[in-house]
Design a protein that fits this description.
heterodimer; A: mainly alpha; B: mainly alpha; globular
Amino acid sequence: EIQQKKKDEL
Amino acid sequence: MNIFRLVGDLSHLLAILLLLWKIWKTRSCAGVSGKSQIMFGLVYITRYLDLFTNFISIYNTTMKAIFIAVAIATIYLIYFKFKATYDSNHDTFRMEFLIVPVGGLAFLVNHDFTALEILWTFSIYLESVAILPQLFMISKTGEAETITSHYLFALGSYRALYIVNWVYRYYFEGFFDLIAIVAGCVQTILYCDFFYLYVTKVMHGKKLSLPA
């Protein structure tokens, strides 16, 4: 869940 | 997306466009550290490798493409088009002293031992120290052009706003990424000295000059 979310930041 | 991250991204975009505009308009990269710009280019390239594989949103993809393009354009102006105005005598910070330890740390401390994840981690760590050659150069020359100090203020503000974004996401989304947070705090702390000078001098119409 953290891995997936992290990638939405620049 | 939240307002802190949006303003942070726009501040980041403003900073890199401001620098590109300054070099293009004055046709000079005096006072600009080419080494910092090379490291920022490396930061964007290693972080946005998923540009074509991992679609998040139009905004995300567009901003990534702009960051990479502007970084490459800035490096081109410094090292090719306006090479004669590049102040290599004052841009002497040893990049390898940053890239090698950061590369090693990315191998040791990361969320997932895969190529993409290690490169992303390398990019996060590198970004936190990429401004050091620029700050070092200003300390050597003892001053910075006003436009360059505006660039630094916008660039420093972007990651400070990201810290607020991470606090916001922790409380409202239960999301946090310790690697990004720690590196972001280090990055922002490195600007504190500059922020103080910027607020006490540049905002009062004075030129940014370090105490000799």
